[in-house]
Structures are given as C-alpha cells and as structure tokens.
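Let's practice the habit of predicting before peeking. Look at the sequence and jot down your guess about where helices and strands might fall. Then scroll down.
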Amino acid sequence: MSEGIEIIRGDPRRALIKLSGPLIVAMLLTSIYNLVDAVWVAGLGGEALAAIGFVTPIYMILVGLSNGLGAGAASSVSRCLGAGDEEGMNNSASHTIIITLAVSIILTVIIEILLRDTLIALGAAGALKPAMEYGSVVFAGTLFTLFPGAAYGILRSEGDARRPMYAMGLSAVLNMVLDPILIYTAGWGIAGAAWATVISQLLVSVLILFWFLSGRTFTSIGLSHFRADRGVAWSILSVTIPGSAEFLVMSLVTALLNWILTSVAGTSAVAVYSAGWRIVMLAIVPVISVATALVSVSGVAYGSRNFRNLEVAHGYSIRLGLLIAGATAALTFILAPWIAWIFSYSQASSHLAPRITDFLRVLCLFYIFLPPGIMSGSIFQGAGRGMTSLMLSVIRQVLLVAVFAYILAVIMGMGEAGVWWGVVAGDIGGSLVAYTWARLFIGRLRRYGD
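Done guessing? Here is the structure:
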C-alpha cells in the first residue's frame, strides 16, 4: 500500500493538508499563468483583453467539464478505495478515460462549427475578429483541456497530489515561456496565446499518459482493466454531469454578466471584469485546492461508511478555508492599486487601472464568504450526490448572483459596480444555503446511515 493510500484512509485533517499542499502550488502556478497570459494580451490593447473575456464563458464550459470528469473520477475511484475494491478502482479509472475521449471528439466538432454565432450571441461583435482568432485555436485542443483534469482526479483519489502538481506546474511554465514568443516574437498576436495553451496542454497530456501506462501509478488504466458496466459509468457521470453543469451555469451567468456590463458601461467594463476576475481566481486558489482535495477525502470516508470522518473533514476544511480567505482578502485590498497596474501598463489599457482597483476591493468580500459554500458542495460530490451540488450552484449563480447583479446594476442604476456587488451578495446567500444543507445531510447520515 502506497503512502498516499494510507494518508487518504487515515485522519481526514491530515489527508486534507497533505493533498491540499501540492494542489495549492499547482493551481497557483496555473492561475499565475492565466494572469501572465492576460498581461501579455493586455499589451495588444483593450479589444484583445475584451476578446478573451467573451471567449471565457465558452472555455469555462470545457474547464468545468474537465473538473467535472476529475471530480467524477475522484468520487468513484475513492469510494472503491474506501470499500477496498482495487479492481473497481481500475475499472472506474478506465471508464473515465474512455468517456473523456468520446466527449472531447464530439465537443470539438460542435464548438468549432458554432463558435462564430455563439460569440456574436454573447455580445462580442465589437471584438469578434480577435475573439475568433483566439477561440478557434483553443477549442481545437479540447481533448488536451479535458484529459488532464480527468487524470488528475484519478491520481488524487489514490492520495497522489504530487504528480498533478508536477504536471500542472509544467503546463503553466510552458505557457508562460511560450506566450511572449508566440504573441510578439513570432508575431501571431492573440492567436499566439491560444497556441501556447494548446501546445503546453498537449505535452502535459503525453506525460500523464506515460505515467499511467508505465506502471508508475497505483491505479491502472487500459482495455485490460476495462469491463463495460453501466453502474460504473453512472457512478462517474452522476458526479461529472452535475459538476460540469455547475460550470455551465457559471459560464451562462458570466455571459449574462458580460451582457449587463456591456449594456451599462460598454465593452471596457468587460475588460475590467475579465482582468480583475483573474486576480480573484488567483486569490481563491488555496480555498479551491482544499475543496478539490475534500472530494477525495470525503469519498473515502463515505465509501467506508465513516460518517464521523465526513463531519470532521467538512468542519476542518471550512475553518482552514476561512483562515486562508481572510489573509488573501486583506492582501488583495491593500495591494489592489499595484495589481491593477499590471493590466494597464500599456497606453491602450492605462484607463482601466482605477476601475480594476475598485473591482478588486469590492470582491474581497467574495473571498471571505466562499469557503462554507464551496466545501459543502465538495462533500456532496464526494458522496456521489452531484445533483445536490448542482442545485446549490444554480441557487447561488442564477437565483442570487444574476438576479442581484441585474437589480443593482440596471434597476437601481449602480452601473458596473452593481454587477460586482451582485456577485458578492449572491456568494453570501449561496454559501449560507449550502452550509445549512450539508450540515443537515451529514447529521442524517450520522443518525440513520445512508
């Protein structure tokens, strides 16, 4: 038995720390890449930055599906691990890879055909040319976006957070090196940023596949381990579909927010939101990392019917998340003017700096109220209750964030600041609902079992 297996089967607090540490490093590197990518693109002007903002809702669907596949794999494989079913682990992992391949092929064709019309529908007419240049390349590499996320979920389920860290770190570094070369040296412009992403993801996918096929992982994949089973497929998809749908909901809400921003303040408001949101995503990486680790930890606890560990993991993850969120919120508030400068260093984007500063200071409240909600969603994913996690996301994103943003920005006339405050208000309400629901769920399990 590997050290990772022993850790994830042991004290959930220790398991969360051990799994979260490498994840934080890996996801920080990835977020830093996203930030650096935006900085290089900002040098091309506000239109190019806005173009990425319009492509983002579509790309979020792929990121969501990738994370959903990872969550589905982590949940299914870790539950098999908790039950001591090694053959089931390998079969679940192999099902995950086959599902990922099939979905990637279908989505690549659909997105490329509909990309232009979709971007226009999202309001990107004013930045359509750069948006198409960027999007058509990125979405051609859909397989290399989805595969790593699915593979990371398998590795995390066996307590291995180091290999995902190495792979994600390598991808980020490659991206950062290739960006200036392809954007400026090669003269490819915004398309160069897209090619940097695809090339780095391709190379990392090859590395991950090598790890699995060369026997360097506890879990094995391949046709020799694959036994077609609807139950196994559904154990993955029951978490993958709702988990991916959560990002689809987020993508649709982001598109709606872009529409509201364009309506009340023009295309530049989308550029401000797109740039500022990258900082927000960077700041909340440690919290997201803990939540990602919690899926595997709670899956093992649920699979072994150790509901006390499930309760401990939930409470500890929230306390850890709140501690991290408080520190990052304080740092963001203090450093906001200097952070804003990195998106406004060129003459073409210098006018965005004050608005980006204001955005970051408002969104600091978003950090603080995030942990109870996101950790509660991870508990349901780990237990195979993906639909519950999806329902909580719909409540937060659609019923709260979107509605509050529209009311504050349009009806109350607060303009683009109303959208920012709508995001904060929706986060607060959604987290309270999710936390209450999760506590009731865990309480019922401890009293009556599943």
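How did you do? The longest helix spans residues 46-82.
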